[in-house]
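Field reference: sequence -> structure
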Amino acid sequence: MDLNVLTAPLTTHEIEWRVQSQTKDGQKIIVVPYITNRCVMQRFDDQFGWAGWQNEIREIEGGFLCTITAVLPGGEIVRKTDGASRTGIEPIKGGISDAMKRCAVQFGLGRALYDFPKVFIETTDKYIPNWATPLLDKMVDKINAGGVVRDVVVLKPEHAKPAKA
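Structure field:
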C-alpha cells in the first residue's frame, strides 16, 4: 500500500517548533520540530477519507494511549497505538494531542522529523524569537527540496537581516 499522502514531506504550516532546552550558558535555545494535530487529522482524511479512519483515546496512569484504526483500499484494517504523558500546559488536551501525534508517526507521518538537524537559536530568551521563524521555514523548505543541511544548525539574529546593497 502506498501511503504517499501520510509520508509526503511536511510543509512549514504542518510543523511547530518547540523549545526543548536552553544551553548552560543561557546564550542559545535548542528547538525541535513537531507535527501539529491538525496536520494529523488532515493527512489521515486525505489518505483514507473522512470515514476511512478513526482514533480512540484511552486514559492510563500519567497519560493517554491513542489507537488509530485505518481502512486500506482493499478493506484491510490496520491499527496502531502509541502514548504520551500529560503535558505541563493543558495536561489533558495536550496529552491526548501528543498521543495522537505519536501514534501517527507509527503510520509514517512526520517520521522524517527525526532526521532533522539539531537546531540552536542564538538568544537569551526562553522563547523562539520572531526573527528566527522565517529562518526555520527556509530550512524546512530546503530539506523538502532535497538540499543538504548540516547535522547542527545555529541560527543567529544577523542571519535574518536583509543583505546590504
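Note: The chain has a mean pLDDT of 93.
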